[in-house]
Amino acid sequence: MQNRPRLSYETAPLKIQFLSRIQDQPWLRPLLWPLSQLYGLITFLRNVAYDRGWLKSHTPDIPLVCIGNINAGGSGKTPHTELIAAYLFEVLGPVAILSRGYGRQSKGFHLAKAGDTPALLGDEAHMLHAKLPFIPLAVCEDRLRGIQQLQALHPELKAIVMDDGFQHRRVRPHWNIVLSDYSKPFFDDQLLPMGGLREYKTAYRRADMIIFTKCPAAIRLYDRKYYGGRIADFSAERILYSSLIHLEPIFMEPFEQITLNHDGHYLLVTGIANTDLLCDHLNNIGLIYKHLAYADHMEYSPNVLQEIQSAFENLHSPHKAILTTEKDFVKLVSNTIFFIQNRIPLAYIPIEIDFQERDRKQLQVHLNNFAEKCRERY
């Protein structure tokens, strides 16, 4: 499709996250620096305590994969968790997913079941459960207790995939996978609150594999060498690169499944950490849209829905709809009647994780080796 410049009614998001806002204020940086040093000292001492055994780490008696990150924010943990859990299910057998359930309104351990809402599970965990209903999923802020409860309820499990938890040192996974956004690699970041690092960048040495996510579809050999050189003590076969592909939108029933119209006007509604790639995709296909960008894990209250409705009604085209992410869709679709009564077509843009052939083969080698080790335990 021919690229056209984006025509947008609004260039700045209505709401942005507090941390991003203060990081963009140069006059605040001298104040943030000592806070970052204090934060770094606390995380350093905590890691030392676990490394030296002063704080106890527990190794589960069931194989555990942890998919985490060092940078705060959207590195793509959820779609990579989906991909890895589905693959292990195919080659290994019964596996489960354990999530903290960030943003949920419940507490403690909860095993997902049909009819659970994003408020009960958290939006990302709810999305995983909807896409992989054949894989048991539990949410629990105490990862060790969550693992134990999953084993008690599903003794047939061969492994557990933990979505996030690289900093949860109380549990020692058998395989640590760290994700980092290609455009914001951890080795160029700074500690919170000056940057997005949850701990010192040297923490990557605890990982068994690093995946740089959201890469260009055709990443150059030069870039591979550069990224690998920045973590030279990490072998090349343990550094992979994945891309994110946007697919055709899927409309909420009973609205008709249609192709986006270049003469249409659309309202993009997002509540995720990073919308750059999605906006780039819409720009590249020449879509005219207005963007309402809310904070990550946004709760779509009646007031917010009214705000969305008002923005939608101000679109000037017979071809118009609301576009959103799959993560936001699982929350917005709980207001189905609102969208039907107000004749507001709602669609989400699915994403798919893709690897170049060399990375896909290497990932399969790693996953198959892990599955073989799991079989040896039983």
Task: Give structural notes.
This protein is an alpha/beta fold and 378 residues long. The chain has two domains: 204 residues, Rossmann fold; 102 residues, Rossmann fold. Helix content is 35%, strand content 19%. A nine-stranded mixed beta sheet has the order 3-4-2-5-1-6-7-8-14, sandwiched between helices. Strands 9-13-12-10-11 form a five-stranded mixed beta sheet. Helix 3 packs parallel to helix 5 and helix 5 packs across helix 10. The longest helix is centred in the first third of the chain and has 23 residues. The N terminus is likely disordered.
Q: What is this structure's SSE topology?
A:
Elements: H1 18-23, H2 29-51, E1 64-69, H3 77-91, E2 95-99, E3 110-111, H4 118-121, H5 123-131, E4 137-139, H6 143-153, E5 159-163, E6 175-181, E7 209-213, H7 221-230, E8 239-246, E9 250-251, E10 265-270, H8 276-284, E11 288-293, H9 302-313, E12 320-325, H10 326-332, H11 336-341, E13 346-349, E14 351-355, H12 357-376
Parallel strand pairs: 1-5, 1-6, 2-4, 2-5, 6-7, 7-8, 10-11, 10-12, 12-13
Antiparallel strand pairs: 3-4, 8-14, 9-13
List key phrases describing it:
Rossmann fold; alpha/beta; 19% strand; 14 strands; nine-stranded mixed sheet; disordered N terminus; five-stranded mixed sheet; 378 residues; 12 helices
Offer a quick outline of the entry.
By secondary structure, the chain is α/β, with parallel strands linked by helices. The chain has 2 domains: 64-244 and 354-376, P-loop containing nucleotide triphosphate hydrolases (Rossmann fold); 248-349, Rossmann fold (3-Layer(aba) Sandwich), CATH 3.40.50.
